[in-house]
Design a protein that fits this description.
heterodimer; A: 114 residues; mainly beta; six-stranded mixed β-sheet; five-stranded antiparallel β-sheet; 0% helix; B: 114 residues; seven-stranded mixed β-sheet; four-stranded antiparallel β-sheet
Amino acid sequence: GENVEQHPSTLSVQEGDSAVIKCTYSDSASNYFPWYKQELGKRPQLIIDIRSNVGEKKDQRIAVTLNKTAKHFSLHITETQPEDSAVYFCAASRVGGGADGLTFGKGTHLIIQP
Amino acid sequence: EPEVTQTPSHQVTQMGQEVILRCVPISNHLYFYWYRQILGQKVEFLVSFYNNEISEKSEIFDDQFSVERPDGSNFTLKIRSTKLEDSAMYFCASSRTSRQETQYFGPGTRLLVL
């Protein structure tokens, strides 16, 4: 089955700086890669996703890049703000025939230092 | 904006007891999922459900677990004989179609087995 590795486990950046979180996946058939943000005690919320037919997607301060050959994808947050502090999870799945479960990475605790 | 809802928010049970966790997916969604998150760990896929049957399940989803859609709105997860290691946050999620892969998560049920 799919295995998703995520690094780093903790990332501390100064407010206004950029943050990058990286994930690798093992199943070359995976074709959908969402990123979820989870604040303490709350539900995971989708912040951005990318499908395997594109290499990059951007939404305001958030961008995701995908390298299918190397089987890795990254989350980039620019101009970080205190409200960006949370745990971020990458995930991968193979979407197509049926309801495909997401395989999550272990999460990155992002801390924005004021 | 419609959201996935879950009840109860917290449940405490004795080891060996049966528990039923309830979810109301977003109304026009067709695919339903259960995930669990042990405290401080990553989110893990349990099972997906479509057209009144299980589409996919993980190795965690053994014979102690079952899912059901008893009516047009509810989606339940039953654990027949709870173990201490079942203590976790259980998230329900739903997606409109498999091709529109975004999975929306509910707020979770925190299950504590004593």
